Amino acid sequence: MSVLDALWEDRDVRFDVSSQQMKTRPGEVLIDCLDSVEDTKGNNGDRGRLLVTNLRIVWHSLALPRVNLSIGYNCILNITTRTANSKLRGQTEALYVLTKCNSTRFEFIFTNLVPGSPRLYTSLIAVHRAYETSKMYRDFKLRSALIQNKQLRLLPQENVYNKINGVWNLSSDQGNLGTFFITNVRIVWHANMNDSFNVSIPYLQIRSIKIRDSKFGLALVIESSQQSGGYVLGFKIDPVEKLQESVKEINSLHKVYSANPIFGVDYEMEEKPQPLEALTVKQIQDDVEIDSDDHTDAFVQQDREPVFSEELGLAIEKLKDGFTLQGLWEVMN
Fold first, then answer.
1. Which CATH number is 141-259's, of 3.90.950.10, 1.10.287.3610, 1.10.3720.10, 2.30.29.30?
2. What kind and span of H or E run contains 120?
3. Which parts of the sequence belong to the BBSome complex member BBS5 PH domain (predicted)?
């Protein structure tokens, strides 16, 4: 089974997936995380978190994480910005994502709840563009611009492990003589007489690699995934020992790739969000001594001893010298 047969993250739209499906798969990398994003069309008024990976975008409600979305980049038809009506922000600019999955169209509207922050638009649009421009890592290609001056045009994260001359492509009755390149992400063959007659087979698309008998003798047979068309390609490599070594090498590289695929979406945020630990400020104890005196208020005066007032018929604080009850009543009146 090819890696692609188990890969759904970039080519599917799913709702309310399990916590296991929300986790990143091997080769999937978290690029950006926005903690205040509203799914304005599906969950208006619900604050959520948007995760941007190299394969998809994932949104989930902060209050109920089981309410979520997973949108693969391969399903996205268009990304635009328009005005939307958000319960949390009112009339505001939002990100419209139009998708198509299994002949069904879905439209999603995401609103950044942080006023004045363009990060939602810049990161998602840029990562989707990086996905679109790196399809050579993931797609089966025929007759592409692969060769320049008889050398393979390498992808940014690609390394050539072996170059085999004199390899026959058995797609026609008489065969075509060409050159084989074995790299860490794909297998490439091109005809020696015509560079444009070529094929690029990413490990992501390879279903099986075997040695089979043909009318030309023993041959390397590569079967591609159903998503790529289910091609069966035959290559003649002489002598047989070299054929066996090549098959062993390809199977080994395919196994390494399957454990940690290289999807080719190379994008890094210029300003990565800081982790919570970096944003937490340690509280510092103020260097203040507290006076243990009974009087903690500087404006409280010393209480005076009580005396009996014959005029009022009850006990009152002793008046200060020069003050009389009659004088105090006159002040109040």
1. 2.30.29.30
2. helix 119-132
3. 28-82, 158-212
